Amino acid sequence: MTRTHRHSVSVRLAIIGAGKVAAEHHVPGIAHDPRCELVAICDTNEQLVNRRQAQWQVSLATSRPERIISDPDIDGVIIATPNASHAPLALAAIAAGKHVMCEKPLGLSVAEAATMFKAARAAGIVHMTAFTYRFAPAMRYLRMLVQSGDLGEPRHFRSQRFLDWPETSWGWRQSKALAGAGDLYDMTIHRIDFGLDLLGPIDRICGALERFCLRGQTEDGAACESSDVDDWSCLLGRFVNGATGVWEGTTLAKGYHMGGVGHDWAEVNGSTGTAIYRLGKAHSLLLGKPGKGLEDVAVPENLLTPAGSPRDPQGQPAAVGFRQDLIWEFVSAIREGRDAAPSFADGWQAQVIADAAIQSDLSGSWVEIPRQKP
Ligand SMILES: NC(=O)c1ccc[n+]([C@@H]2O[C@H](COP(=O)([O-])OP(=O)(O)OC[C@H]3O[C@@H](n4cnc5c(N)ncnc54)[C@H](O)[C@@H]3O)[C@@H](O)[C@H]2O)c1
User: What's the farthest any 2 CA atoms get from each other in the chain?
Assistant: First the structure.
């Protein structure tokens, strides 16, 4: 791929959407990375963007995304807005030659995600999908064990994401028009990405979605528009390599609060061993060998952060710190003139599977996944 930018100086980043994920993941990530700086922020909520400007000490704050996208002094844009605006904002930033990191799900549908990937590839910019949990040290270690053959031939992938959320409004997240889907696009899509990253492409999917709660009230008790998205999603799949996959996600698992982290479990059962990732224990893996019990094994030091990152892995709770490593990867890819991982191709492929689950739920049958090479 051709790259127009080569950086000996700081990579100048802007954030569009100055809400929760920007504050918790991306701004601290930029602060940890001496190779980049936050030069501009945008949010359509003027009061919020003004407050963030003071809080984050950034010189340019605007409520107009065009101001960021047309600015020649900005190298890369982080899109952290509700899902419905990902595609228009990313396509505009790509057309202006910016590198783009976009939050997940990449688009409101697989068609949008494919358009975004193709535009990014044609423009030769660095593109990245913010599949945060890939950066968890335990997941990095699990990937290494699968790739090195330590678990033998992979047979099963299994993931559970159980949250105990209040049954009040999720705001934009409970609107199909703004979010595309509920738990499936919010939580399960990260775990679909785990499966694809660890075991490769999937050739068939059976999916089911349910909505149990209407959430017609806000936390303060005010009436609001009811939810029209799922709060439970489940997939059964078969990988091209013959392995099976099972995913379940819910926000209605009472008692699974677990200090706010919830239950997040992903495992691979191979012919010679099992390895289990848990978000609540992000610096260790459960490992199992034939005929023995599961053992808690620490992630090797060199896998706690990305190579070269100055972030102190012990400086924050294990379930939190790695969420700031996405910026390190985005900036490294820009500086090194290489593809970022996970890229828009990964965001697109995860959405192919998520949308197949929606289709399967509607049709009541398995959906064959066409072979498509990005
Ligand atoms: N990768 C992860 O682990 C992770 C975690 C949380 C959220 N997310 C994703 O990040 C995105 C944002 O989620 P959030 O929880 O921060 O939401 P949020 O509601 O806290 O923040 C979104 C912000 O975007 C602003 N906004 C809306 N439309 C805009 C537009 N067109 N231009 C500029 N600003 C606009 C809103 O005013 C709001 O301040 C979503 O796509 C979500 O799925 C990802």
Answer: 61
Residue 162 Cα to ligand 1 midpoint, Å, equals 22
Q: What is the pLDDT of residues 155-213, one digit of tens each?
A: 999 999 999 999 999 999 999 999 999 999 999 999 999 999 999 999 999 999 999 99
> In 135-144, which positions are buried (b, 16+ CB within 10 angstroms) versus exposed (e)?
bbbbbbbbbe
* CATH of the domain spanning 133-323+350-363: 3.30.360.10
Could you identify the atom of ligand 1 that is nearest to the CA of residue 83?
A: 41
Quote the pTM value: 0.96
Q: What's the CA-to-centroid distance between 24 and ligand 1, angstroms? A: 11
Closest CA to 101 of 128, 137, 74: 128
Domain residue extents for the chain: 11-132, 133-323+350-363
* pLDDT single digits (tens) 83-127: 999 999 999 999 999 999 999 999 999 999 999 999 999 999 999
Q: Which CATH number fits domain 11-132: 1.10.510.10, 3.10.129.10, 2.60.120.580, 3.40.50.720?
A: 3.40.50.720
Query: Ligand 1 pocket test: which of 15, 16, 20, 100 has the largest number of ligand atoms within 8 Å of its C-beta?
Result: 20
Neighbouring CB atoms inside 10 A of 289's CB total: 12
Query: What's the CA-to-centroid distance between 81 and ligand 1, angstroms?
Result: 3
